Model the fold of this input.
Amino acid sequence: MATKCARCPLRRLEMFVPMSPEEVRVMDRFKVGELTVDAGTPILQEGSNALQLFTVLRGIGIRYKTTESGRRQVINFVFPGDFLGLQGSVREEMTHSIEARSKMTLCVFNRSELFGFIKNNPERAYDIIWACATEEHFLGEALTTLGQRTAMESVAWAVLRLFERAEGLGLVENATVELPLRQQDLADALGLSLVHTNKTLSKLRERQFIGWTDGHITVPDTAKLADVAGVEVEAAQPRPLM
Amino acid sequence: MATKCARCPLRRLEMFVPMSPEEVRVMDRFKVGELTVDAGTPILQEGSNALQLFTVLRGIGIRYKTTESGRRQVINFVFPGDFLGLQGSVREEMTHSIEARSKMTLCVFNRSELFGFIKNNPERAYDIIWACATEEHFLGEALTTLGQRTAMESVAWAVLRLFERAEGLGLVENATVELPLRQQDLADALGLSLVHTNKTLSKLRERQFIGWTDGHITVPDTAKLADVAGVEVEAAQPRPLM
DNA sequence: CGGGAAGTTGAAGCCAGTCAAGATTTGTGG
DNA sequence: CCACAAATCTTGACTGGCTTCAACTTCCCG
Done:
């Protein structure tokens, strides 16, 4: 049985902007179902023209593109509250793929109803714009990382941002998150080889800036890690939840 | 005297989605003025909280971020029809700067009126989402370029995409565009050193894939250049014009 | 207990960065 | 209109951070 939006566990989190009961009811009507998938399942495919939009309720995923030469670029990591499939709805087709990294639960919406929904709910249109602008901000930072930072700075940056997102979602206990990511995912996100990513992680571990064992990431001091990365710690901004 | 939207030279171009006369009138009321700046002028600053939104009417610019260590990452190039300052309107502040590379003319809108405007014009909300999703698509491709492609592929990719955008705007004559970009801009966009960018451009010139002299870029055969870059030629999609 | 996926470590080579100097173009004031 | 300065482009030589190749370890699951 699908979760009622009013009972959505995410809405209780401080990081999400509250909605009025009426607004929640509207979301409930827009929602057409729920999808649960296992780790490793593709959710949206590059080049496809999916009929659905999703919001992540539970679980972690990755967005990635594949080049003609068979290499893979991880664009971003997907966390609960993220909105998936907008590109496929607004443009002709998806330009990246999304795959589950853990078991995931997704709220499903009909793409064909999107325009009508926006028309009647301008606040939600604004929320979508917010999400999109935020994604753009992140990608700009990622681009700067790949273009201008050393491997050491890049890895520190990526671990920091992952940790910060998890923290906002209350997934951090004892300065530790469980994230089912492989070193290969991180390497592909940063444009580094697996070998070099591994060696860089080792150095960061050695110097006690991070812990990364067995899918558990520890950051004892985000300020110190931010310093290694050459960036500022980013305070979690309240975000809208669709 | 500010140009009336009904007489906007961009609207005549095939690449922009037509608007009804009434829609154009609404845009005209939203527009509060026009801004003309010289090459080199900063238009929006990273970290600032600008009160204005812009649409580019004429001229070329660059978006870029600066790192703490003083390096510069060019995020994207700005062309006529582009919408500027959305991030500053929706989020707390701009996360990148925008600077004119040629003399530019911009249509000015009030940021404070944006929400009301969206509310009353859901088609425009959809257009903003479209623009944002398209930017996201581009940034994903840029990320893939920096992360996975060689210098030769990267430079070919960048020149190709610049050329394609210019072509859609009717700026290409005899397979040539005039773009007031320095090699340093291209280098900073691709995360390459100026020296290596220069040498790579030389090779592409030698092999007749491109011409780049004196701010004039020539691409005799986009398909061949796309082949070097390892990407597909991207057909110009019709885009909304605010 | 065997096999595959993920992580670890060492060694060798190269792509791209850095340093340096000169050529060419552009701008500016006398 | 010339002279000088500043910006941009070009080319060569050297260096090093990261990639690639390869082997080994650890962990898990049937």
